[in-house]
Design a protein that fits this description.
With about 375 residues, this protein is mainly α. About 80% of the residues lie in helices and about 0% in strands. Helix 3 runs antiparallel to helix 6 and helix 4 runs antiparallel to helix 5.
Length: about 375
């Protein structure tokens, strides 16, 4: 669901032209770093809370959840304080065209202002998932996404009493939606009782051992996500040499692929919970069966986006741009991406299984060199 915020923003910002589209999509590659760090905390929370639930240790589950929330808030605050001032220099370093760089810096700086809300939102979602409840996060994030969709055109274009904030309006709409999601999670947690394992007393003090364990479990995922972000920023720099349309294509196709990613990541998240709870209950064979079943399910689901990308790529591109140059460049690129979807499922689902076991190092050792290979492969085709 988190990708939905960006897709909605892209839909409306696309009405501002190719430069604004390129600015937004390039900024999204940088927000991956923030998202990867939040996901690292979430992976650590799920691994510890799910296993404690499987062991029938609600006190341990609640303590791990609370320490995860503290870690998430502190990291979000750190992004707000330290990363936000770097947005302008980042896009100058990447050599973005002069019509793209200031718009990208404006959007990214605004998004980073909402980092604490985003980190808390991801942490709360992960606690619910660790209990095996994926419906509550779906409802909360769904409501938050609807708010984002309603506010986007109001804050971007400024009809009536609303301010016309342009690309910054999309970022503010998302921040408001994130904040609403946090408030909804907090309200639901108060009424959930034991169904939401959060030891409120543990929020009053930091347990550095538990926080360190949370971050250690999630660190490989953060490194993978950061490398992916760095690779796409390099690719954006290369695309900038071919003009604004090429930058826009890179970002739009990445966002389209993210819809397939959402489905694969959802299966991976469910796998993580099932593996963690079964290992906590001393049922390793059942954990293994759950992971393998999830892979088969994920590959079956991936056939739909694969076929759509291969057969009607232009139809998928049109909601986000009407620029003929972007459409012409994006069509063959999207077809190539379509060939990779089943392999992405394998990667995400098995990574989710390893995360549920608390062993995130093997996926990192596989994914890091593959991600890094994109840059020399891309350069070799010039």
């Amino acid at each position: 669901m988190h990708v939905s915020y960006h897709l909605i923003n892209l839909f409306w910002v696309g009405r501002l032209g190719a430069a604004a589209t390129a600015a937004l999509t390039t900024s999204l590659f940088a927000t991956w770093i923030m998202g990867s760090l939040a996901e690292a905390v979430a992976i650590g929370i799920v691994a510890q809370v799910a296993r404690a639930i499987g062991e029938q240790r609600p006190d341990r589950a609640g303590h791990a959840a609370a320490q995860g929330v503290l870690a998430a808030f502190a990291l979000g605050l750190g992004f707000l304080i330290f990363a936000r001032p770097l947005t302008g220099p980042l896009f100058r370093l990447l050599g973005m065209p002069p019509d793209v760089a200031p718009l990208a810096a404006t959007y990214l700086a605004t998004v980073f202002a909402g980092a604490p809300a985003f980190f808390l939102l991801v942490a709360a979602e992960s606690i619910w998932r660790a209990t095996g409840d994926t419906v509550t996060p779906l409802r909360v994030l769904g409501a938050s996404t609807v708010v984002n969709a309603v506010l986007d055109p109001l804050l971007i274009f400024g009809p009536g009493p609303f301010p016309a904030l342009g690309i910054a309006g999309a970022a503010w709409a998302t921040i408001i939606a994130w904040s609403l999601g946090v408030l909804l999670f907090a309200a639901l947690a108060r009424g959930a009782g034991d169904r939401f394992p959060l030891a409120r007393a543990s929020l009053a003090r930091a347990d550095w051992t538990t926080i360190a364990r949370t971050l250690r479990i999630g660190l490989p995922r953060f490194l993978i996500g950061t490398l992916f972000s760095a690779v796409y920023l390099v690719l954006a720099n290369l695309a900038a040499r071919f003009g604004t349309a090429a930058i826009a294509v890179l970002g739009i196709v990445n966002r389209l692929e993210s819809m397939s990613y959402i489905m694969a990541d959802a299966v991976g998240a469910a796998t993580s919970t099932l593996v963690g709870q079964n290992l906590g209950a001393a049922q390793p064979e059942r954990a293994s069966r759950a992971a393998n079943t999830a892979v088969r399910l994920g590959i079956s689901i991936s056939l739909v986006p694969t076929a759509t990308m291969l057969l009607v790529p232009r139809l998928l591109l049109r909601p986000f741009t009407a620029d003929p140059a972007v459409l012409d460049l994006g069509e063959p690129y999207l077809r190539a991406i379509g060939l990779c979807q089943a392999f992405m499922v394998l990667e995400l689902v098995y990574a989710g299984g390893f995360a549920g076991a608390g062993d995130t190092l093997p996926p990192m050792l596989v994914e890091l060199p593959i991600a890094a290979a994109r840059v020399p492969l891309c350069c070799s085709q010039r």
